[in-house]
Design a protein that fits this description.
TIM Barrel; 8-stranded parallel sheet; single chain; alpha/beta; binds pyridoxal-5'-phosphate
Length: 226
């Protein structure tokens, strides 16, 4: 089996599952760590939404691929990289601090943003606390409105909605059920933020059942990362 056949079969399998649960959902193929040859195959198979999480790696890839790709950033944001990320990314999924918003605004680039929610935080968690598996990131749900109001002050930033990663120690259905409640209450204040980015290779079906409009899938399509 060639690499192309393998990617094509995996992609068809993932797309069939998305189709059966929410045909309108957007698939972002998370291409981080995979070589440019894989991205060329995906492009040739018709994919146009790619997700990366390392600035330097993405900058190289973007240079070598056609201009009609929509590039998503979904990793931890280092503030000294924001200017550079804004050069190549179109959609940022992992906003969880005010200073990131002002820095992306200062870039002057037109960007679409998701606010990342930490599903391990609860109403008693202080806003500045490091919560659970901190590497997963995300804002405390009670801080979302304030972040969204800040995004809406900048004409070059467009708020798409909320994003989350399911905690490792909880059933995805339970975590995404909570996310769906958080999203509903957020939308009462921000009805134009219509999108929900949730679900990775091993939990995207659960996420789609709980209203995800954007799924971010890597290893189910491209295989295990080294
Ligand atoms: C790496 C990553 C993904 C994709 O993960 P897979 O398990 O390879 O599907 C999705 N979302 C985020 C935030 C990631 O860091």
């Amino acid at each position: 089996m060639t690499r192309r056949d393998e990617i094509k079969a995996n992609l068809q399998n993932v797309r069939a599952k998305i189709e059966s649960l929410n045909p309108k959902a957007n698939l972002i193929v998370v291409t981080k760590t995979f070589p440019i040859g894989d991205l060329e195959i995906l492009y040739e198979l018709g994919e146009r939404e790619f997700g990366e999480n390392r600035d330097q790696e993405a900058t190289e890839k973007v240079k070598q691929l056609p201009g009609d790709i929509n590039w998503h950033f979904q990793g931890q944001i280092q503030s000294n990289k924001i200017k550079s990320i804004a050069n190549w990314a179109n959609v940022i999924h992992s906003i969880d601090e005010e200073k990131q918003i002002t820095k992306f605004a200062e870039s002057g680039k037109k960007l679409e943003l998701f606010l990342q929610v930490n599903l391990q935080a609860n109403l008693d968690t202080p806003s500045d606390a490091k919560i659970g598996d901190d590497a997963r990131g995300g804002a405390n749900p009670k801080d979302l409105n304030q972040l969204a109001e800040l995004v809406n002050k900048f004409p070059n930033l467009h708020l798409l909605g909320l994003m989350a990663v399911a905690p490792l120690d909880e059933a995805p259905d339970q975590a995404f059920g909570r996310l769906s409640q958080i999203f509903k209450s957020f939308q009462q204040s921000f009805p134009k933020a219509q999108y929900l980015s949730a679900g990775m290779s091993f939990d995207f079906e659960s996420a789609l059942n709980h209203g995800a409009t954007h799924v971010r899938i890597g290893s189910s399509i491209l295989g295990k990362r080294e």
